[in-house]
């Protein structure tokens, strides 16, 4: 650990975790260490504690809800840990390596790229900045048609001041690579859910779709997910 000495007195140290140079008040004391303080700063140690607590909670929930099926388990878990999950996700997304991975994926993964482009086009439209020609071509419906379909849901969320996301009932990741975009993002596969719910849903489970749609898409679903498709 690199430490700075001024006139023989140690004043700062570099945290070996976040690599920031900080004054000694930012470190817990530790007699074992040569410079008398811990190698991770207080902020990093607090994050480590929270992370540990989160993992323990997660493990407990796993035990408790294992037999209740994935869907309920995830919903219950996010309900109880909403704020923490939200912050965690937010910070995670901003990490440089994660951001780089996202850029690479955008370049190389067509399904992912479509998802990102589609979402942003729809959000622009929701905000009244619609340029929907390209989206319509891609998805088989216009942003206005999308809005019409979900107007009530969107209004409900707007009225209650809860953040919402555009979500795929059957997650994009469950489709085979050759599945057409207009099938993956068909109106029948879309829904509006709360942001926190979506953050924790990710690709872990599918929400029920109409029987017609299920029949139409089943051949585009990866083998290991086929028996997890449920209908309304
Ligand atoms: Zn640190």
List the helices and strands and how they pair.
Blueprint: E1 3-6, E2 9-14, E3 21-23, H1 42-65, H2 70-94, H3 96-108, H4 110-126, H5 133-139, H6 143-160, E4 164-168, H7 181-184, E5 190-194, H8 195-201, H9 211-217
Antiparallel strand pairs: 1-2, 2-3, 4-5
Helix pairs in contact: 1-2, 2-8, 3-4, 4-6
The structure holds zinc ion (ZN).
Zinc ion (ZN) binds near residues 18, 20, 43 and 44.
What does this structure look like?
By secondary structure, the protein is mainly α. Among the domains are: 42 residues, no CATH class; 119 residues, no CATH class. The chain is 53% helix and 10% strand. The chain has 9 helices and 5 strands; from the N terminus they run βββααααααβαβαα. The strands form 2 sheets. It has a 3-stranded antiparallel β-sheet with strand order 1-2-3, with no helix packed on it. The chain has a two-stranded antiparallel sheet with strand order 4-5. The chain is elongated and about 70 Å long. Bound molecules: zinc ion (ZN). Zinc ion binds next to α1.
Spatial strand sequence of the major β-sheet? 1-2-3
Model regions low in confidence, pLDDT < 50 over at least 5 residues: none
The number of helical elements comes to: 9
Which ligands accompany this protein? zinc ion
* Biggest sheet statistics: 3 strands, antiparallel
Cα radius of gyration in angstroms: 23 Å
Mean pLDDT: 80
